[in-house]
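User: TonB-dependent receptor, Ideonella paludis:
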Amino acid sequence: MTRSRQTRSPLEAGRHSPALTPIAAACSVLILISGQAYAQAAASTETQTVTVKGIRKGIEDAINVKKNSDQIVEAISAEDIGKLPDASVAESISRLPGVTAQRSAVTGKSQQVSVRGMSPDFNGGLLNGREQASTAGSRGVEFDQYPSELLGGVVIYKTPDASLAGLGLSSTIDLQTVRPLAFGQRNVVVNYRKEHATKAVNEPGFTTGDGDRFALSYIDQFADRTIGVALGLTQAKTRGGARANFNSWGGWAADVDYNGGKVKTPGGFTTDIETTDSERTGVMGVFQYKPNKEFESILDLFYSKGDFSVKKRGLEGPLGGLSAGANDVGGKLINATVSNGIATSGTFENWKGVIRNHNEDYTDTLKSIGWANTLKTGGWTLKSDLSYSQVVKDSVRFETTAGLAGNTYNAADTISFSGFNGTNFTDVKYTSGLNYADPALIKLTDVQGWAGGSAAQAGYYANPKTTDDITALRLSGKRDLSWGPLTAVDVGVNLQKRTKERVTNEGALLVNGTVDANGNYINRLAAVDMPGASVGVGGLTGIPTLNFNPVGTLGSVYRLNPWTDSDIVGKSWGVEEKVNTLMIKGDLDSTVAGLPIRGNVGLQMISTKQTGLGYLVDKNTCNTGNHTCGYTAISGGASYNDFLPSLNLTADLGGDKVLRLGLGRVLARANMEDMKAGLDFGVKNDAPALDGSGGTVALLNGSAGNPQLKPFRANAIDLSFEKYFGKKGYVSVAGFHKELSSYILRVAKPFDYAPFVTPNTVVPPSGTVGWLTQPINGSGGSISGVELAVNVPFSLLTPALNGFGVQVNYSNTSSSLKLASAGFSTQNVSSPTIPLPGLSKEVTNLRLYYENHGWQIAVAGRNRSAYLGSISDYQDQQKYTFIKGETVVDLQANYEFESGPLKGLSILAQANNLTNEEFAQYDVTSGATTERKVFGKSYLFGVNYKF
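Assistant: Predicted structure for TonB-dependent receptor:
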């Protein structure tokens, strides 16, 4: 007999959250299991019909998805139309077992998601089952581009499903919009929220912020319920909200001459007050046509556009006697207090600080469209799905420098520091001798001479643009069978083409007077007054500074001197992929040893053809003084096949207990930036000898992408035991192991540059063989973990606690994989190896809620241990950095009028980051904090009306 199974989620939500120890989690499981008998007895005597809504409806819908799935999945479901349990999709997803979020280093809000301790790049990102484009050089979907009000739910597949395209190595995350014919009647929901952000720190220069968020959802059915329409619109704006940033230049302690000896002092600092403004508009549309049981057509439209701006106003400069540029002679330490070789306080003479007035703006536009058709005929269910996804991100980075002009001091300055203990770089107090808010002293100029040589750089401008396009066509057919345990077979093909490119234009800003009409330098040290100047604060130093807005000054105050250094040329690239997938899946339903078994077995056969584009730069053609290099376009590529078998089995143990087993081979494709064909090389006079002798010699040395990269591949096994209490709650214990047969790492290896040598190339006596650093495929390593989850209402224990409930989960993940740090763009790393990016050893989520008599109250927290995360640096490049563990606590309260003239109206209050948790980077060797970002708390107040 064939059992019915749910094939798609209704509308999901749920969430879980913070710091709970493994022992506490285990105790919770035991307590709940001990109450099982009472709960079942209570359930058996319940005869009254109860309408479930709000938090519990979202939880029960999500549990229903998990319980009826043939795979091991996690789900969240909207508590109501247009109402996921959090303000962002990433925050809601991060509360699920084995899942956590990385906060944005700019906004402090959840942006990307790690599943089972792996990088966000290892997830497959889908919308309604279709792979989605992304903005970064990686493939990780930025979930803040998907307004939560436009989604009905999310399903995370932890084991592979052969009928899904775009599978990931760690998981496949499918965002889902609603299906209007699944609703019994018209639904219209309007909500509005007002946001208030507190001061990040209670210091001068820090301001509060505010925002507005509006959403409208409309669902209706027409023509005797054969036509369904769903429309959604959301508009969100945030303004102001100053955040604190302090960077200690990598946590560097300088050895400084003092009184005939050496003492340690801070090596430098950068501190900003960062003010962000953002706006996002989202539109969702679904048209569903189902004239009969045999045919259905669904058209999905999703649009999201975000405008984001961050203004950085601050102060930076070298310490430790360091000369940081051609215009700086370095300072001298005086009046120091020394303890155990550390200058706990002191003053540097001849200090030259740099005032930062930077703007970083971008616009991202997401377009996604899909048209799916289903036809039942002749015993077959035939499906077609045509889809297109595009993301365009256009950025502008505008950096300016101001301070004392010239390479000799027209006014002596000092910088004093106090409170230094040798490692607390981000807590040191600074005071200056000069007034950095005096327009008679402070000018727009090349303060330090950071361009090097004779070049000038009074600021920097960059305009990178990333475009990602995915076009796909899927055809499939499914037929019921009676071949022993095989009850149905589903065969399909997915044809997909993806193109991604990044193009940048950047270079130095020159103030008027730096060059003549022919572009020749006439005064590298030119300085001009700051237009529209106002008095601000140099970040967390509290030192008054002169500030202005650089927008609109290109052409009036500055001119752009484009640079084509090898690293800048290498930022422009393109990649094209053609991925054709044959999918075969069979549904299973049988009995083994008296136990009902259901599930599926499948195989994906994937043919991939990829091409990488980039530029070849021979550094011998470079003019370092003018920051120019010659370059030519190059390309390369590869074709290969993958075979991904999968097996999912679910055993019904009786008493609402199930045991699940998942086996399969999974993959994650390389970051697309790593697949570029770019190559640059030149002579390095102190390169390590090729024979491994430990000496140094002059060799050709370079770096490159690798258009022949193959994916990360792993063989995976998953086991999960789940005990359900109807659809009201569950407890589960799961374990997984992934054995990596292939992964990607960056290494330096011997390479013969002979094919790229030109008459202009300087070849050292050693010849054309040298070192090349590029991403390659390695083998070996594993990832294993255990996940515990409890999701229950307390009414299962006693009716006295009706309305109360808890969602709690804990995961512990480890990996044997160690990567060579030398091949990665890393910060705060002095060890030869680094762990797997994204891996937090422990992740805990806790959510306590109460829902009764119209009240819905929930407090939630999520905790993750320290990990190696990926952030975008000041050059728009992704770098790995160690990020400290954190616990983020949120609170939500809602009251809904259940009767009377206000029925359908609810009032909402929400508080995020209640403990003002910092985003902190640290040095993995010393443990010292190298950079702190303080975001403050935010509050939302709003109303929601459903009619």
